[in-house]
UniProtKB/TrEMBL annotation, chain A:
<dbReference type="InterPro" id="IPR029061">
    <property type="entry name" value="THDP-binding"/>
</dbReference>
<dbReference type="InterPro" id="IPR005475">
    <property type="entry name" value="Transketolase-like_Pyr-bd"/>
</dbReference>
<dbReference type="Pfam" id="PF02780">
    <property type="entry name" value="Transketolase_C"/>
</dbReference>
<dbReference type="GO" id="GO:0007584">
    <property type="term" value="P:response to nutrient"/>
</dbReference>
<dbReference type="InterPro" id="IPR033248">
    <property type="entry name" value="Transketolase_C"/>
</dbReference>
<dbReference type="Pfam" id="PF02779">
    <property type="entry name" value="Transket_pyr"/>
</dbReference>
<keyword id="KW-0560">Oxidoreductase</keyword>
<dbReference type="GO" id="GO:0006091">
    <property type="term" value="P:generation of precursor metabolites and energy"/>
</dbReference>
<feature type="domain" description="Transketolase-like pyrimidine-binding">
    <location>
        <begin position="68"/>
        <end position="243"/>
    </location>
</feature>
From TrEMBL, chain B:
<dbReference type="GO" id="GO:0046872">
    <property type="term" value="F:metal ion binding"/>
</dbReference>
<dbReference type="GO" id="GO:0009083">
    <property type="term" value="P:branched-chain amino acid catabolic process"/>
</dbReference>
<dbReference type="InterPro" id="IPR029061">
    <property type="entry name" value="THDP-binding"/>
</dbReference>
<dbReference type="GO" id="GO:0003863">
    <property type="term" value="F:branched-chain 2-oxo acid dehydrogenase activity"/>
</dbReference>
<dbReference type="InterPro" id="IPR050771">
    <property type="entry name" value="Alpha-ketoacid_DH_E1_comp"/>
</dbReference>
<dbReference type="InterPro" id="IPR001017">
    <property type="entry name" value="DH_E1"/>
</dbReference>
<keyword id="KW-0809">Transit peptide</keyword>
<dbReference type="GO" id="GO:0005759">
    <property type="term" value="C:mitochondrial matrix"/>
</dbReference>
<comment type="similarity">
    <text>Belongs to the BCKDHA family.</text>
</comment>
C-alpha cells in the first residue's frame, strides 16, 4: 500500500481533477452550481469572517484576515501552536519538506528540525511515539499521511491513547496529543486515498474526533484540538485543501469542541452533516427549496463527531420534526446510525417521518464508480423529498 | 576504568558487526586500490547516492550472510556468587547492596503470598517474578528522574524506588486507595511520583512510547533517559520494530531492556524467533547492543549504568538483552507444567537462582548471616500480611469513578449515562449492592 501512497502523493493530478469534479461543474440540475467553489457558506469578505458569535470578539480586537485555503489555515494553526507552546512538536512521514499536501510548509525552517521532523514510515510508531511525548507533558501534533493508513496505529490509538488517563486513575494522560490526517473522497482516490474512518473511532471512549468544513473552521478547531486536554483525531477533508478559500482571521483563536454549528435556519427539516459533505448538503437544500416551494431546511455542521452535540440536533428536530443525516462513510455502523438512534430516543413524539440516512454504500470506496458511490446532491435531495412527502 | 572497558567491548560488538556485514569491503579495496571517501553511517545528511555511488560498496563475491556466532552474555559473577574479574565488581557500598538484596527477597515473598491469595480467590489475578529478581540491578543503575515504561513483570523497579506494600496491595485489591481507581487488573501498577508509567496489557505498545518520551526529555534538556522493559515475546510485535527504528533515527535517549526468559506463555523462544535472540536485531537498527546474564545483578547493573551514560550523554538508544529463565507460571491463569518439564524448572530454580547468587556474594563479604536472613524473611512476611489484610478490608472506589477520567471532564453523554446508572441503582437496590463501595 505504501508504494501506491508514495506514488500518488507527489502527483499533481489532484488539483485539476478536484476542479473538474467539484468546483467547475456547469450549471447542472435546475441551474445549481455544485461544489465548494460556489458555496455561500464560505466567508469571502473580511467582515463576513467575524460575523459568527464565536468570532465576534476577534473583530473587536481589530484582528485582520488573510485569504487562505484549508491547507494554509491548517499550517497557520500549527505555526501558532508552535509559537505559543515551547513543548509543541509536529512530525510524521514527509512533514519536514512541507508535507505531501503542503500543510507543514515552512514550519521546519521556522521552528527547527528538532520540532518539525520526519519519522520513519511506520504509523504505529508515529502514534506510539506521539503518545510517549504527550505522556511526559509535551504537545505532540502527529500526522498520518492519509486517514486510510491510520489502521496500523489503531491499537495505539484505541488501546493506549484513549485509555491512558482512565487506566492510570488520572496519574498520567496524553491530553497533549493530536493526530491530524487527510480524509474523505478526492475524486479519484480509490480504496486507500478516500476513506472516512471516523466511525471506527467514535466507538472508542476517551477520544475526541473533529472534522472542519472550511479554512476558518480548520484553524479554530485545530488550535482547540491541539490545546484540548484529551487526545484528538483531526480529520481534514483533503478535497478542500485547495478548493475551499476563505478570509481567515490572522490572530490566535479557537472554536469550541463538542459544539455543532447551525449554518442555515429552517423550519421543516433538519439536515446534519460534517466535513466536505456540508457542500453536497448545501446544494441539495438549494435544489429542494427550488423544487418543493415553501419548504425551509435547517443545516447543521456537527464539527465534533465525538462527543457530538446532541442538544443542538435534538432541539432542531423537535422544531422541524424531520431529520436527514449524510456522510461519505458506509452506512452500516456509520456515524449517522448513532445520530439517528439518539434523535429517535429524544424526539420520538416529534418525528413526522422516518429519519433518512444518506451515506456511502456498504462497499469499499471504488475508483471508477465514485460518482455513484458518494452521497451526492441528488441523493441528499431525494432523501429530503422522501422525508417531506412521507 | 571499568566504564572505559565496558565501552570498548560495546564498540567491539559494533565493529564486529560492521566487519560481518561488509566482509568483502577490504578485499575489494585491496584489489581495486581505489581511493574513495569513507562514508560513515553517522555522517549527517548522507544520501543513498553517496553510499552507493562509490565502488567500495560492491563485491564480486556471491555470498549470502547469516549469523556467524552467537553474542555472548556479559557476566560479572557466576552462579556461586563469585566475582570472575574483580575489576568488574561494581563494589557498591554495603547499604546499597543490602537494599538490592532485601528488595529481591521482599518481592519474592510478596509474590508467594499474592500468588496464594489468587489461588484462594481473594484477588482476581497475579503474575510472579520468580527467577527474574536480578533485574533490580537496572533500578539501582538509574536515576529517579529516569522514566520507566514496563510490560508487567517489573515490580522490582517499584520496590526499589519505594512503592510501599500498601500501594502494591491496594492496586491488587482494586480498593479505594488504588491510584488506578480499581479500573485495571492486578499488577498493572503505575506511579507518577516514582516516574513509573502505568502498565497496560497490550504487549509492546510501550516501546515506541518510550522512544517518544525520551525524545521529549531530550528536547526539554533533562539529563534523563527512559528505560523500556519488554519480554522476548513482545519483541515480535510490530511496535518493537517501530520503537527501535524510531529511537535510532531520531536519536532518543532510551534504554530498551529485553527480559529474555525463554517463554512467552507456552511458546518457547525457539518458536518466537530464528535469529540470535533479540540482541542481534539491535545491531541491525544501528543501536549499541549488549547481551547480559539476566541472573547476575551486577552484570545487569554495569550494563545499565553504561547504557544510561550513552543514552544521556550521547543522546541515542541502547539495547540490553538479559538472558534468564521464567521459573514461575506465566500468570495465575496458566499451568506451565502443561508445556514444560517440572524437573527442568526445579533444576533451574535450584542451580541458578538470582537471589541465591546475590546472597552468596553478600555472605562472602560477611555482610549477611543466616540469622539475619531468617529474621528478615519473617519480618517482611509479617509486614506484607499486615498490608494484605488492611487492603482487603478497604472499600472499593466510589462508583462515580466508573465514569470519571475517560476525558478530563465528564462529557454530556457520560453525564446522561451516569444519571441513568444512578437511577437503576436506586430502582434495584436488591440487585446493585453498593455497600462495598466508597460513597462519592
Amino acid at each position: 500500500m505504501f508504494c501506491l501512497k508514495r506514488a500518488i502523493k507527489h502527483s499533481s493530478a489532484f488539483k485539476p481533477l478536484i476542479a473538474r469534479t467539484y468546483a467547475a461543474t456547469s450549471k447542472g440540475i435546475d441551474g445549481i452550481q455544485e461544489g465548494v467553489a460556489y458555496s455561500n457558506l464560505l466567508k469571502r469578505d473580511p467582515d463576513e469572517a467575524f460575523r459568527s458569535p464565536e468570532l465576534a470578539h476577534m473583530s473587536a480586537n481589530n484582528s485582520g484576515t488573510t485569504k487562505m485555503n484549508l491547507f494554509q489555515a491548517v499550517n497557520d494553526a500549527m505555526s501558532i501552536a508552535l509559537t505559543t507552546d515551547d513543548k509543541a512538536v509536529v512530525f510524521g512521514e514527509d512533514v519536514s519538506f512541507g508535507g505531501v499536501f503542503r500543510a507543514t510548509s515552512g514550519l521546519a525552517e521556522q521552528f527547527g528540525r528538532d520540532r518539525v521532523f520526519n519519522t520513519p514510515l511506520t504509523e504505529q510508531g508515529i502514534a506510539g511515539f506521539a503518545i510517549g511525548m504527550a505522556a511526559v507533558g509535551h504537545t505532540a501534533i502527529a500526522e498520518i499521511q492519509f486517514a486510510d493508513y491510520i489502521f496500523p496505529a489503531f491499537d495505539q490509538i484505541v488501546n493506549e491513547a484513549a485509555k491512558f488517563r482512565y487506566r492510570s486513575g488520572n496519574q498520567f494522560n496524553v491530553g497533549g496529543l493530536t493526530i491530524r490526517s487527510p480524509s474523505s473522497a478526492v475524486g479519484h482516490g480509490g480504496h486507500y486515498h478516500s476513506q472516512s474512518p471516523e466511525a471506527f473511532f467514535t466507538h472508542c471512549p476517551g477520544l475526541k474526533i473533529v472534522t472542519p468544513r472550511s479554512p476558518i473552521q480548520a484553524k479554530g478547531l485545530l488550535l482547540a484540538s491541539i490545546r484540548d486536554r484529551n487526545p484528538v483525531i483531526f480529520f481534514e477533508p483533503k478535497i478542500l485543501y485547495r478548493a475551499a478559500v476563505e478570509e481567515v482571521p490572522v490572530g490566535d483563536y479557537e472554536l469550541p469542541l463538542g459544539k455543532a454549528e447551525i449554518l442555515k435556519k429552517g423550519t421543516d427539516v433538519t439536515i446534519v452533516g460534517y466535513g466536505s459533505q456540508i457542500y453536497a448538503l448545501e446544494n441539495a437544500i438549494q435544489l429542494a427549496e427550488k423544487r418543493l416551494p415553501g419548504i425551509s431546511c435547517e443545516l447543521i455542521d456537527l464539527r465534533t463527531i465525538m462527543p457530538w452535540d446532541v442538544d443542538t440536533v435534538v432541539e432542531s428536530v423537535k422544531k422541524t420534526g424531520r431529520l436527514v443525516i449524510a456522510h461519505e462513510a458506509p452506512k452500516t455502523g456509520g456515524v449517522a446510525a448513532e445520530v439517528a438512534s439518539t434523535v429517535m430516543e429524544h424526539c420520538f413524539l416529534n418525528l413526522e417521518a422516518p429519519i433518512q440516512r444518506v451515506c456511502g454504500w456498504d462497499t469499499p470506496f471504488p475508483l471508477a464508480f465514485e460518482k455513484f458511490y458518494v452521497p451526492s446532491m441528488v441523493r441528499c435531495y431525494d432523501a429530503i423529498k422522501t422525508a417531506m412527502e412521507y | 576504568m571499568l566504564r572505559a572497558h565496558l565501552r570498548r567491548s560495546l564498540q567491539n560488538v559494533a565493529l564486529l558487526s560492521q566487519r560481518r556485514s561488509f566482509a568483502a569491503t577490504t578485499k575489494l579495496l585491496n584489489n581495486a586500490s581505489v581511493n574513495v571517501a569513507q562514508t560513515t553511517s553517522d555522517e549527517p545528511g548522507r544520501s543513498n547516492k553517496s553510499l552507493w555511488g562509490s565502488t567500495d560498496r560492491f563485491t564480486n563475491e556471491l555470498k549470502f550472510m547469516q549469523q556467524i556466532e552467537s553474542l555472548k552474555a556479559y557476566r560479572v559473577m557466576d552462579h556461586t556468587g563469585t566475582v570472575l574479574d574483580p575489576e568488574h565488581d561494581p563494589n557498591l557500598p554495603r547499604e546499597e547492596v543490602l537494599k538490592c538484596y532485601k528488595s529481591m527477597v521482599l518481592l519474592h515473598t510478596m509474590d508467594g503470598i499474592l500468588y496464594d491469595a489468587q489461588r484462594q480467590g481473594r484477588i482476581s489475578f497475579y503474575m510472579t517474578h520468580y527467577g527474574e529478581e536480578a533485574m533490580i540491578g537496572t533500578a539501582a543503575a538509574l536515576k529517579p528522574e529516569d522514566v520507566v515504561f514496563g510490560q508487567y513483570r517489573e515490580a522490582f523497579m517499584l520496590v526499589y524506588r519505594g512503592f510501599t506494600l500498601d500501594e502494591f496491595l491496594n492496586q491488587c485489591f482494586s480498593n479505594e486507595l488504588d491510584y488506578g481507581k480499581g479500573r485495571q487488573m492486578p499488577v498493572h501498577y503505575g506511579s507518577k511520583k516514582l516516574n513509573f508509567q502505568t502498565i497496560s496489557s497490550p504487549l509492546g505498545t510501550q516501546i515506541p512510547q518510550a522512544s517518544g518520551a525520551a525524545y521529549a526529555l531530550k528536547l526539554s534538556g533533562a539529563n534523563a533517559c527512559t528505560l523500556c522493559f519488554f519480554g522476548e515475546g513482545a519483541a515480535s510485535e510490530g511496535d518493537f520494530h517501530a520503537g527501535l527504528n524510531m529511537a535510532a533515527t531520531l536519536k532518543c535517549p532510551t534504554i530498551f531492556f529485553c527480559r529474555n526468559n525463554g517463554f512467552a506463555i507456552s511458546t518457547p523462544s525457539s518458536e518466537q524467533y530464528k535469529g540470535d535472540g533479540i540482541a542481534s536485531r539491535g545491531i541491525g537498527y544501528g543501536i549499541d547492543t549488549i547481551r547480559v546474564d539476566g541472573n547476575d545483578i551486577w552484570a545487569i547493573y554495569n550494563a545499565t549504568k553504561v547504557a544510561r551514560e550513552i543514552a544521556v550523554k550521547e543522546q541515542r538508544p541502547v539495547l540490553i538483552e538479559a538472558m534468564t529463565y521464567r521459573i514461575g507460571h506465566h500468570s495465575t491463569s496458566d499451568d506451565s507444567t502443561k508445556y514444560r518439564d517440572r524437573k527442568e524448572v526445579e533444576e533451574r530454580a535450584q542451580f541458578d537462582n538470582p537471589i541465591t547468587r546475590l546472597r552468596r556474594y553478600i555472605e562472602a563479604k560477611n555482610w549477611w548471616s543466616p540469622q539475619e536472613e531468617e529474621e528478615y524473611r519473617k519480618s517482611v512476611k509479617k509486614e506484607i500480611l499486615k498490608a494484605f489484610s488492611a487492603a482487603e478490608k478497604r472499600k472499593k472506589p466510589a462508583i462515580k469513578h466508573l465514569f470519571t477520567d475517560v476525558y478530563d471532564d465528564l462529557t454530556p453523554n457520560l453525564v446522561r449515562q451516569q444519571n441513568e446508572l444512578n437511577e437503576l441503582i436506586k430502582k434495584y437496590p436488591e440487585y446493585y449492592n453498593t455497600d462495598d463501595f466508597a460513597s462519592s
